[in-house]
Queue: 2 jobs
Job 1
Amino acid sequence: MTEHLSGKICGGDPTCRLAFGNRYPQPFCCGHHSFTAKDIDIMKFCFKLLSHFSLATLFVMIAGCLTIPGESEIREQRSERADSLIHHLATRSATNTLSCHLSGELHLAAAIDKALILNTSLRQARLEREIAKANITTAYSEVLPMLSLDASYVRYDEELGTLRDGNFATTRYRDRYRAGLRLQQPLLSGSMGPALRSSRIYRLWAEANIRQAEEDIRYAVTAAYYDAVLSEHLLQVNIAATETAERQLADTRVRRQQGMASNYDELRAEVEVANFQAQVLKARNDKDVALTSLFRLLGVSPESNVTLADNLPLVVESLPFDDALRIALELRPDLIQADYAVRLQREALADARASYWPKVSAYLSQTWGRSDPHNSSRNTWGDEWEFGILASLPLFDGLDRTGRTAVERARLSQRELALRDLEEMAASEVRQRLLSLTTAEEFARSQSRSLDTAREALRLVEAGLREGQNTPVEVMDARQALTTASGNYYQSLYNHAMARVALQKAMGLLSSGLLPDGAVLQAM
């Protein structure tokens, strides 16, 4: 037989106490409530469970604080990562696999193609496509239905009921179970259009961002390639000058033994050789640095051994400013990005204004429960369905909508001003690139004439030396002038080639796959 304990409200009488017998000797006053020993055990179990849960939560919080890495641990992790990276580079250098090691001839077009595949920065930019696709998927949540499944279990402290014809009829059981499906379909919302349009505009913005990254890579690879070509030419010029100076030194020593040259002439020739040898060392280091930079952009092993097959081009341009500017305004990816940024901000403003609109949706739900949803006095499983229309119209939200709309409107003005400023900057940049290209072309032509003059001067001085009309010092001066003229000539070719590449980038043409080996307009 179950031990039954009961009590009633006594209006504050201090003598009203309910003793729980030998098992629960403490006094208790409950008023209109009935408790059994089983009820007390359940309550004690619940309190015990809550206390254990609280202790577990506190332990997790303390453990989380204790597991935060300190500065020394972070430094040790960085050191381990550095060791791992060094080992990886050493292993890759030792294996020299085909995927990361280049050899043989390397053309500029092949270098650009390699960089477009392996460059890490470009691969990061291309991940924007995946982000754009995910944004489009997310935007569809504004118009697609939402299906949800929910379930619950509730235990009440006691059953409720009423007396009917002298019998107690239960109206609420202590245990209640519920499970249901709910389908909700948005019908009207001001955020639908802006969300869908924004996701598609963002995809176009991402493509323009990828184009910008490709242009940056093409420009960087072309510049690095031409740097390496220039350093190779300067190295060959200094090597040739060193070999000529060494021959001159040997000839001077013979002439001094014959009494036809002084000690000063020999010392002067030795200094000349030493100077050119120093220039050779510097030029060789510049070449190694340029190739290392090129290999890094290509994403290949720095131990690669290639021969640069393309030379520095000299292509005459005749490009009117208006034509160049029109092309730039139509094709430059940064201008396209800025235009899409304005469009995105317009949609953001439209979304902020949508908070003034009503929202309407329809829903359909199916619920299973125990007790029966139709009759809570039946402690059996039952089900019910429900269909309805939901509508809401915010009337006052503490000026939140007003503030957000003002912020988005100001940001739209910022984007529009940024686009206008970028267009003006593009016009100025195109004009500067055209002027720089014209100057570089004139400089290249003048240095070509200077190189021919220096060669002829050296030939005449060497002939005069053999005939006794010129001195060895004059020959050295002429050779130094030829070396300088050769270096200036190749530098002028480099400047002209880079001016053309910079013009193509300013016009937004590098991402089209054009190479600077023909006139810009002809290439189009």
Job 2
Amino acid sequence: MSISTQRHTLEAERDFQTIALDLRLPDDVWSWKTISFVRNKPTWIETKIFGELGSHPDQSSSLLLLQSTDGRDVLAIYPVSTLAANCNLRIDTRASTLHMNIRRCVPRVETEVFAVTGRASSENARGLVKMVVEAARELVGGKIESKRSDFWDGLGVCTWESLGKEYLTPPAGRPTFDNLLNLIPPFPIETFLIDDGWQDSSATRALISFQPWSGIQAPMREVINSIKSKGVWAVGVWLTLQGYWMSIDPTSPLIGLYDCRPFPTARENQARGGIHCPLLAGEDKQWLPSPEKPRSSGSTTLPRYTADYAQITGPGSAHVQQAMWSGMMEAVERVWGGTDRVIMCMSHNERMLNGPGGLGFGRPAGNLIFRISDDFNPDYPERHTNYIQWNVYQSILTAHLSFVLDFDMFASSPDDKWPEYHAFLRSLTPGPTLLSDAPHDETDWVLLDRLTSKVKSGATKVVKTDTPASALPGRWFRDDVQDMVDGPAIMAYVYVPEAHGSIIGAWNCHSDTTDAWARDHIRLQDIHDSLKRGQLDDEYVIWGMNLKGKTDGYALVQPGESPDFSIQLAKSECGGVVVSKVWQIGGRRVAVLGMLEKYAPLARLRVAIQADIRNA
């Protein structure tokens, strides 16, 4: 593998600049297959696969992955932002040029930004993104947080999917004292997230005060304490950094208190984030605090409610955005003492994916809880099949950043919400596991039993991996995994070095408007990638986890030999396998497969051979 860095200084008097990347690229690079992290929606950056770089749209990119036309090489280009300037990539297909796209966040400050480029053979692509991220972190002095937080080890509840339904009395979806208490399930949970709708806001979706809305029926302190009295350990609330969806209401007393003034939502005739998103009447400006005020705002409101954590949505723009974000991070550190109490939601921007948020500099130390995809069960076509792709491809990058990845809530029932399809994915990340069953739906106890377990203390915890699932590198550039006909599955892996094994998950992500099957098999490259090694030195076993999808049975894999293990998944089905080293003990071959009755069998498992017992 090779790596190079391009530096550029944004002078103090410049607000933005576009600089061509000085790269010696092959002549046919515009024909290379491309994965790009582009803004597909106003609040979400998602991965898109393009048949060639030349078909990339006029959108900025937070990471480019390119595969050569012969499939032998992979190139990664990663732009690096700072607190003072955002940097992403601009792909000019007409001029056949790649650019660093630099925009100022802090006025009149000279700052240096970077673009890191790495190249590897396809067989070694598994280490490529990690390599460019580590190089970027070294350039900016970022820190890696190795200490593990246990804040999210238990099962939690999120109210969004539960409350956003027509069966509730008007106004639908808004939390009240009674309906919140009715959402506490008859099984142990540790966290409870009060999602959108609890705040005092106007009809135009702007914040009026820091108090709850009038229909909540009780003071916020009483609401939270009542939830805790039911056995919940920590209660959190949903917030937007800019106030509410459309910032602060111009008639709010907060306007004077925080020296708020209007800022344009978007420059005239400019697409928002590279996509067409027309503004409605009255949405052309947002009232936000001055950059000097945010550091002192909001740091006492949540503790006064006795809230234990928050989900923060939608940080705004430029200097104000930067100041509000830094102020929030300082307040979180001061009030709660750690960064693991904030779920960064709808926070997809250069600061998080390419700068201080993800690279761990210019902010309090620690890993951030980071939502990496759009919502569970949105009102979109292909919402379940796309969901898997959003998350396991996003983690190609985000798994290497200073984040704990959040795959969002899910529901255990009914079947049309594809419960096991989602539950399996949630077990493959150390992030929050939040259930959002509707009150009239019966919880699937079998699913919960497969997701959780009691520990020595008697508490119920989620059985989940310490690192997040990520798309198998040897399959990154497959563009036939979401077709309308039978084809391969989307596969992701979690390496568990302490157990000398891995978990590979497979999902049928073909169009849910058809009955297409995912028909696939585990390849030797999949085994190598899942174990993060170039070749096998020992015998391994592939053991099916017996989910609804047909991935049962087992196969033995010898070094250099291709395994014989097929996967057949119908619509809405997923499957999984455990890959485990075969040990020679006392003349017998032994493999440790973990807790096969759980979705993450190898989670927290440590395997070591202390002595050969053949003569014992």
